[in-house]
Automatic annotation (TrEMBL):
Pfam families: GLTP (PF08718)
Boundaries of every Glycolipid transfer protein domain copy: 21-159
Keyword set, alphabetical order: Transport
Name of this chain's protein: Glycolipid transfer protein
Species per Swiss-Prot/TrEMBL record: Coniophora puteana (strain RWD-64-598) (Brown rot fungus)
UniProt key word Transport: yes
Leader sequence segment: none
GO CC field: cytosol; membrane
InterPro entries, per database record: GLTP_sf, Glycolipid_transfer_prot_dom
Length: 204
């Protein structure tokens, strides 16, 4: 697996039981996803990073204040429904949308080796967040897409071992990244279906 993915919690390692997706482990993996935008190394992604980081914090605060009723993401959402603000429910909803955007973008890049990141992230945005954004926010994302680094430079950062280890095997790298993305996609799809079934996003 690529050195970067060896340094963060993988979505493939997030426990999922009949009760739902483990909240703490999911949050740990989500922080690893946040680091991808740091590797993109563009100030244009600051609004995206800030949004994801803020939504992680909303869910994390709910978990820390109510660990007994928030062990899984599903339990967290269900147990917040009697409250007026539903801050964590809203935060998780937008976090999932941001994760869907990132996942779709990287899956597009993985499926098209000659595709530059600007195109991959544009496709990811069009298939996820765009329908939820107003004109102003769409403009912010449009600027960010154009500011994506070259694919080659970004992938080199994903593969490079900060400690100066041996070169990453290409097949092993792709296997690790694909597994990470497939697991993320599965969790996002599961929670999106959960939100739709319970109509938990209504009014948020």
């Amino acid at each position: 697996m690529a050195p970067y993915f060896e340094t963060v919690k993988s979505f493939a390692d997030v426990p999922i039981t009949d009760a739902g997706v483990d909240t703490k482990e999911f949050l740990d993996a989500s922080k690893g996803l946040l680091g991808i935008f740091t590797l993109l190394n563009s100030s244009a992604f600051a609004p995206v990073t800030g949004d994801i980081e803020g939504n992680i914090k909303k869910v994390e605060e709910r978990y820390n204040n109510n660990p007994g009723s928030s062990a899984t993401l599903e339990q967290l959402v269900i147990n917040e429904q009697g409250e007026k603000k539903k801050t964590a429910t809203q935060g998780l909803m937008w976090l999932l949308r941001g994760q869907s955007f990132t996942c779709k973008a990287l899956q597009s890049a993985q499926g098209n080796p000659s595709q530059e990141l600007s195109e991959a992230f544009t496709k990811g945005y069009e298939g996820s967040l765009k329908k939820h954004h107003n004109f102003v926010v769409k403009g912010v994302f449009s600027v960010a897409m154009k500011a994506c680094p070259y694919r080659k430079d970004f992938y080199e950062k994903l593969k490079t071992d900060p400690a100066g280890g041996p070169p990453v095997d290409e097949a092993k790298f792709n296997e690790g990244l694909d597994q990470w993305l497939t697991s993320l996609e599965s969790i996002v799809n599961r929670l999106e279906a959960f939100y739709a079934k319970g109509d938990y996003g209504k009014g948020l």
